[in-house]
């Protein structure tokens, strides 16, 4: 009697200590407090998080969730890719009894993209729950919320969850309470959420732990996504249950460096990990043999292989390769599982060898039986691995379609049951009903049993497995139907496992009855469509006369697969291939190579052009065979490598065929090996030539300032959109529908601030207007106080190319005539004025140059500015550029030139890159000698180490780049910097986003870096800001510079967008570069600094390379002893002042680490002081960091206000002053010592009325008045009353200090009367009266009608106030009344550091030509 194909797992007993996974974490945290998770970054850095710390984070996160209204039993979606943040959030939900539904973040945020469709459908299935997200993606989720398509959409970021410092109580749901929802793949269908309870999960992880023989001594490694059931349950919860240490890689880090994964296993003596078939294949292919000697895998007890069809070929290759590293064949454990079983169903026991079944393909396909292949027939052989025995707690059987258990060696459906098996799908009763038969869950997988071991042989119905991912056939078919070229019902997609290649293949069957020739375009469109939508490759597209279906109309996919595997379509596929070949190859006379060089050339042509060698004649023209610019450069690269010398593009200009190229090369002169340029390196900064960037201001798409731009970069925000309705209206072109990185408010300008009439502003190029405002912001940022009257030897260098406002001017003149133009219209639209207008506005006498090298204009301008500063011909430089596209002309010309992408994205480095997208922006920087910036405690964004500029000379076309020119400019720049390329940590690429430009740029970089021994493993990041904001043409280098400066400032690298699949032509794996695709810490070796290079290449061939280094040395700042500071704010309008106050209040609230002293230092000393003013004394004390006591005022006379001081009877009126013997003011202490000495020397201390307290009081007032005079304010009158007269006379210089003391203490009536004659002046010549302790006396001296014409500042000291606070209070009140001060005296060099503050809030007034 045959043995039945059914296996039973042992019973699982859940420990008393935990019957829920929430109790599990508490148990593990208490038992293993020093064990936990180590998160490994892309650079190999490790960050440890103990289980007890994880529990603490989870409880604090839970507190915030409860505060936001989330309660036990609620469902939340987790879209968090960052592993550390995911686990904190996951456990927070578990501890609160909140049901978790993790799904991957969308890879695209475009409407109707697969990721967003899945999110929306999962969200709908779950009844619109809260979504927990990562903070960097807030903008994208906010966009969804605002779109109107997600009504009721709410989310909380992980940053918000961190806000609570309190831990919340834990909830303990029962064993059968729902805790987890695992969602299937799919984009167009309804996603199915597998329901998992505490019992399901605990049963499975205990069973897996038993089979793994896992203990607390294990060190477990994982790279699998936590949204994957194997990553979540086998690689996280199972080792957590055992108190193991877990080493966590992100999938991105693993894919980028599988060697690092195994190297860390070597270092930490890892004991097990799980991976997919893809993972083992990736490690085998991507880890070079020369690295094997550094790996030791002998510490591994086993590795699990699951989640994908398991390839015997992949296993064999992995075992063979890594056996040299101590890996043994019996370590590999093929496993079978699925989300519906929590994760694990079967796996062989530890230590047993891999078993392989080699069976007859035809009998398996046609008879559903397993038979040994006869006579080792390779063509009929198919191999499957054994996936072992059931885990404890689960039963497995093989059944027919009616639920009857089959015998061993018969193929049927794999069915399971047990406590780890789901009860069904969430909110999907229909799918749940179809899921079970007689209590057994139908897996949809085919398999058989052999000797009580499970073998999985395939999949049933419409489940297709491609690249490690399940797809539903109808999902893929829906995408193809979008072509609108095939009627519904006439497509069937089928999965097929190719036993020869050991790969899953996708077959597309199309009902089609015409000729093969006519079928080929349809075939190509189907292949392209699916690849474009999901990156899925179709192996064969097969035309058939009919799609087989059941009587109920269901497609019989199994029948089509069976026909294919039986070879019924072989002849048809051969005919298709022949037709394709015939179309590609035309009849011609083939001239064979005559020598080895021509043989090499033909072989290279064949490889690059992807055509057979035999079909290439040495007299064929390269471009006639399908060559293009990028392939031409690939050919030049191949020839250069073969000849071991540089070959330029002039070769292909002179030679078209292999024969001509061969003869040209043979006639080339020999190379002088000694002629190569030697790179002189000295990695230290040369202070004599180093230039600092101390000011930065920008206006970029989606960003009005540095912080907004940085936030956009970190959140991967794509700032490209279709032309806005407002821009269409401004341009007068309602039909303009291009994609653009659009700048807001290009029509707005604060003309009154710059004293430009409204009529003139209207006719000015908006680029000039925006450059004026942005240059002011940059100069403020650099502490240059724009608008001072004296001349300054500062140069202005403007990179500028186009003025599209000309088009509107032309239309205006055509409609209204030239008579209505403003006289300055000509200069308002000239390129050179973009520089000259800055010199004019700020009285700069250095050169004012406008430079046009097309796309490299900004960096070309900056290079010339650096040279001028180095030669000491100027003391500093403003470098600026703007690109505003007022009308569509730039788009029209760019499209004609082939520069603009056919899509909305600049896909730099991507294999499908086909051009750029235009963008707008304004960037301004200020440069000065590094030594000067250090001396003045400037905020140094970066040091310019080196720069170079050149031209390509001849290239394949005026718009085509020349790799030789790019290489040379790189070499010259690093020579100028005296820096080894190996010191560089990041390259901001020019990034044309074209199939020709990107490979040439990377090739030139790789050539230089490899020549100077930069290892491929150096991990130098590379990216392009064009992917975020588009190509800013002449200002593009400015955007690149701004990005790198902010990366240096924040010590992070930010992602380049839209790079889905690397362009193979880059050959980036052979370079030290990697494309930065996530926000990452920019780490450097201890003692090193961050350094970056920036490329900028212009149409016409002008190349510039700039090398930057961070400046992180400490400034020479004296320790400030003040406990309080004075903050002043001013503007040219009341509205602007209020905006400035609001900005400052926001800073104080949002930035607890804000340095109050440096803020006041920057505001007071390094800002110009305008008529509308505000001031307040502000404390470093955390509770007093507010502007609560701010005072406002204005003085509109266009000059500094004059001040008169009236000092009252101090001894009578001012007794309640602070305890002066606790005073810490240096000014007071110094003056008290001087006055005490004077009093003692002249015997004043022996007077009857003297006491030490009175002397301190006199010192207080004497110091206050003296400090006010020294502060530089315009005090032209000082008067006193009674005891105050002594102080007034001393301040006026009428008496010396000795006499003043005698008067003060003796109250000598005669002297007081004699000197008090001026106490009632006939006429006040001041604008402000400072009344010190006057009380009612001021009314006696100044009648009300006089006071009404003056600003009265009344000062009465507070018993709680210090001397410094009193002085600053008076200065503040005088300031808002219109008084000016010598801020250099109040804040001398070394007393603070410049910092970046919100820029001046210009008024937004519209000025635009309407025609």
What does this structure look like?
Among the domains are: 356-459, Luciferase, Domain 3 (Luciferase, domain 3, Roll); 463-584, 2-Layer Sandwich (GMP Synthetase, Chain A, domain 3), CATH 3.30.300.30; 596-668, Non-ribosomal Peptide Synthetase Peptidyl Carrier Protein, Chain A (Orthogonal Bundle); 691-1109, Thiolase/Chalcone synthase (Peroxisomal Thiolase, Chain A, domain 1, 3-Layer(aba) Sandwich); 1203-1386, Malonyl-Coenzyme A Acyl Carrier Protein, domain 2. The strands form 14 sheets. The protein has an 11-stranded mixed beta sheet, sandwiched between helices. Helix 7 (198-212) crosses helix 8 (229-242), helix 39 (1226-1241) packs across helix 40 and helix 40 packs parallel to helix 46 (1363-1377). By secondary structure, it is an alpha/beta fold. The termini are far apart. The longest helix has 19 residues, at 516-534. The model is unreliable at 550-554 and 1308-1318 (pLDDT under 50). It is 36% helix and 19% strand. One of its GO terms (biological process) is DIM/DIP cell wall layer assembly. Residues 688-1110 form the Ketosynthase family 3 (KS3) domain. Pfam families: AMP-binding (PF00501), KAsynt_C_assoc (PF16197), ketoacyl-synt (PF00109), Ketoacyl-synt_C (PF02801), PP-binding (PF00550). This is Long-chain-fatty-acid-CoA ligase. It comes from Acetivibrio straminisolvens JCM 21531.
């Amino acid at each position: 009697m045959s043995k039945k194909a059914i296996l039973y797992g042992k019973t699982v007993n859940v420990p008393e200590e935990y019957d829920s996974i929430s109790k599990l974490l508490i148990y593990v945290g208490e038992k293993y407090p020093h064990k936990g998770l180590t998160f490994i970054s892309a650079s190999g850095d490790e960050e440890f998080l103990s289980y007890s710390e994880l529990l603490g984070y989870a409880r604090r996160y839970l507190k915030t969730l409860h505060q936001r209204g989330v309660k036990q039993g609620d469902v939340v979606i987790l879209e968090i890719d960052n592993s550390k943040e995911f686990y904190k959030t996951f456990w927070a939900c578990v501890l609160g009894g909140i049901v978790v539904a993790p799904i991957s973040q969308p890879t695209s945020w475009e409407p109707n993209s697969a990721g967003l469709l899945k999110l929306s459908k999962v969200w709908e299935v779950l009844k619109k729950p809260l979504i927990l997200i990562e903070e960097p993606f807030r903008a994208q989720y906010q966009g969804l919320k605002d779109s109107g398509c997600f009504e009721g959409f709410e989310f909380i970021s992980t940053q918000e969850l961190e806000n609570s410092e309190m831990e919340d109580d834990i909830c303990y749901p029962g064993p059968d309470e729902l805790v987890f929802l695992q969602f299937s793949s799919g984009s167009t269908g309804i996603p199915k959420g597998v329901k998992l309870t505490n019992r399901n999960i605990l049963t499975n992880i205990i069973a897996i732990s038993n089979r793994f023989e896992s203990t607390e001594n294990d060190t477990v490694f994982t790279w699998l996504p936590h949204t994957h059931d194997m990553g979540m349950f086998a690689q996280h919860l199972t080792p957590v249950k055992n108190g193991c240490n877990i080493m966590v890689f992100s999938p991105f880090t693993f894919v980028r460096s599988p060697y690092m994964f195994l190297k860390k296993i070597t270092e930490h003596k890892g004991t097990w990990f799980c991976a997919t078939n893809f993972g083992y294949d990736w490690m085998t292919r991507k880890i070079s043999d020369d690295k094997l000697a550094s790996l030791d895998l002998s510490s591994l007890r086993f590795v699990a292989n699951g989640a994908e069809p398991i390839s015997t070929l992949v296993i064999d290759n992995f075992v063979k390769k890594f056996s040299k590293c101590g890996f043994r064949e019996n370590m590999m454990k093929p496993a079978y599982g699925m989300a519906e079983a929590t994760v694990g169903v079967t796996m062989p026991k530890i230590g047993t060898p891999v078993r392989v079944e080699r069976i007859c393909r035809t009998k398996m396909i046609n008879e559903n039986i397993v038979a040994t292949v006869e006579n080792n027939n390779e063509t009929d052989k198919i191999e499957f691995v054994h996936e072992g025995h059931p885990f404890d707690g689960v039963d497995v059987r093989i059944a027919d379609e009616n639920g009857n258990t089959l015998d061993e060696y018969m193929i049927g459906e794999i069915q399971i049951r047990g406590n780890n098996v789901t009860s069904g799908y969430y909110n999907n009763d229909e799918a749940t009903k179809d899921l079970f038969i007689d209590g057994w869950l139908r897996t949809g997988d085919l398999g058989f049993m052999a000797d009580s071991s499970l073998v999985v042989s395939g999949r049933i119905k419409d489940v297709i497995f491609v690249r490690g991912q399940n797809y539903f056939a109808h999902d893929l078919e829906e995408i193809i139907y979008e072509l609108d070229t095939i009627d519904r019902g006439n497509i069937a997609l089928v999965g097929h496992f190719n036993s020869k290649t050991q790969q899953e293949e996708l077959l597309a069957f199309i009902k089609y009855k015409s000729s093969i020739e006519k079928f080929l375009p349809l075939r190509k469109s189907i292949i392209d469509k699916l690849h474009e939508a999901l990156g899925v490759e179709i192996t064969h597209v097969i035309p058939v006369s009919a799609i087989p279906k059941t009587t109920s109309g269901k497609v019989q996919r199994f029948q089509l697969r069976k026909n294919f595997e039986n070879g019924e379509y072989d002849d048809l596929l051969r005919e298709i291939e022949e037709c394709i070949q015939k179309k590609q190859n035309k009849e011609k006379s083939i001239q064979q190579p005559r020598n080895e060089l021509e043989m090499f050339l033909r072989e290279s042509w064949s490889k690059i052009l992807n055509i057979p060698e035999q079909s290439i004649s040495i007299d064929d023209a390269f471009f006639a065979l399908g060559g293009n610019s990028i392939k031409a450069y690939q050919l030049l690269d191949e020839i250069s490598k073969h000849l071991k010398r540089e070959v330029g593009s002039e070769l292909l200009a002179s030679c078209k065929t292999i024969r001509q190229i061969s003869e040209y090369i043979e006639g080339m002169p020999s190379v002088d090996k000694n002629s190569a340029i030697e790179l002189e390196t000295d990695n230290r900064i040369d202070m004599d030539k180093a230039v600092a960037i101390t000011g930065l201001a920008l206006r970029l798409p989606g960003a009005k300032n540095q912080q907004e731009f940085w936030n956009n970069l970190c959140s991967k925000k794509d700032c490209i959109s279709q032309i806005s309705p407002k821009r269409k209206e401004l341009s007068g072109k309602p039909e303009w529908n291009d994609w653009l990185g659009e700048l807001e408010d290009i029509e707005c300008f604060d003309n009154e601030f710059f004293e430009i009439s409204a009529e003139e502003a209207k006719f000015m190029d908006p680029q000039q207007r925006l450059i004026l405002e942005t240059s002011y912001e940059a100069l403020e940022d650099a502490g240059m106080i724009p608008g001072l009257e004296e001349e300054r030897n500062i140069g202005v260098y403007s990179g500028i190319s186009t003025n599209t406002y000309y088009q509107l001017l032309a239309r205006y003149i055509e409609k209204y005539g030239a008579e209505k133009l403003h006289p300055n219209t000509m200069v308002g639209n000239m390129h050179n004025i973009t520089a000259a207008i800055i010199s004019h506005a700020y009285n700069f006498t250095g050169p004012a140059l406008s430079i046009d090298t097309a796309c490299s204009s900004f960096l070309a301008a900056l290079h010339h500015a650096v040279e001028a500063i180095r030669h000491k011909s100027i003391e500093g430089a403003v470098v600026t550029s703007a690109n505003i596209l007022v009308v569509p002309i730039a788009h029209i010309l760019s499209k004609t030139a082939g520069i603009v992408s056919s899509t909305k994205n600049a896909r730099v480095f991507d294999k499908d890159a086909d051009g750029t997208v235009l963008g707008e922006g304004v960037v301004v920087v200020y440069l000065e000698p590094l030594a000067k910036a250090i001396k003045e405690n400037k905020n140094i964004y970066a040091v310019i180490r080196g720069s170079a500029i050149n031209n390509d000379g001849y290239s394949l076309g005026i718009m085509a780049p020349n790799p030789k020119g790019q290489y040379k400019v790189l070499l010259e720049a690093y020579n100028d910097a005296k820096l080894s390329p190996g010191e560089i940590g990041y390259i901001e690429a020019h990034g044309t986003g074209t199939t020709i430009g990107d490979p040439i740029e990377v090739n030139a970089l790789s050539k230089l870096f490899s020549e100077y021994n930069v290892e491929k493993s150096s991990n130098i990041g590379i990216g392009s800001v064009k992917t975020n904001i588009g190509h800013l043409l002449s200002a593009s280098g400015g955007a690149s510079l701004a990005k790198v400066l902010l990366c240096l400032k924040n010590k992070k690298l930010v992602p380049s967008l839209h790079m889905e699949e690397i362009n193979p032509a880059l050959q980036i794996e052979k370079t030290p570069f990697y494309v930065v695709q996530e926000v990452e810490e920019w780490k450097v070796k201890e003692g090193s600094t961050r350094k970056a290079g920036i490329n900028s290449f212009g149409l016409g061939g002008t190349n510039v390379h700039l090398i930057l280094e961070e400046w992180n040395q400490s400034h020479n700042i004296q320790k400030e002893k003040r406990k309080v500071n004075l903050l002043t704010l001013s503007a040219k309008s009341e509205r602007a002042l209020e905006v400035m106050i609001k900005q400052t209040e926001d800073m104080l609230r949002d930035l607890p680490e804000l340095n109050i002293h440096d803020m006041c230092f920057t505001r007071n000393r390094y800002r110009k002081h305008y008529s509308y003013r505000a001031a307040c004394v502000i404390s470093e004390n955390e509770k007093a960091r507010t502007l609560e006591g701010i005072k406002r005022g204005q003085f509109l006379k266009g000059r500094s206000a004059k001040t008169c001081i009236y000092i009252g009877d101090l001894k009578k009126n001012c007794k309640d002053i602070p305890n002066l013997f606790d005073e810490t003011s240096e000014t007071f202490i110094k003056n008290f010592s001087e006055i005490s000495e004077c009093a003692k020397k002249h015997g004043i201390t022996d007077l009857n009325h003297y006491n030490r307290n009175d002397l301190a009081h006199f010192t207080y007032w004497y110091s206050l008045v003296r400090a006010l005079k020294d502060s530089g304010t315009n005090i032209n009158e000082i008067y006193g009353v009674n005891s105050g007269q002594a102080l007034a006379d001393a301040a006026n210089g009428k008496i010396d200090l000795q006499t003043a003391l005698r008067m003060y203490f003796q109250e000598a009536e005669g002297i007081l009367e004699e000197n008090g004659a001026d106490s009632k002046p006939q006429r006040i010549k001041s604008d402000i009266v400072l009344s010190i302790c006057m009380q009612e006396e001021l009314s006696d001296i100044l009648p009300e009608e006089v006071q009404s014409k003056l600003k009265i500042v009344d000062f009465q000291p507070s018993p709680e106030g210090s001397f410094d606070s009193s002085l600053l209070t008076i200065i503040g009140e005088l300031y808002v009344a219109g008084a000016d001060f010598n801020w250099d005296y109040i804040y001398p060099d070394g007393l603070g550091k410049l910092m970046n503050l919100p820029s001046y809030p210009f008024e937004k007034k519209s000025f635009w030509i309407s025609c």
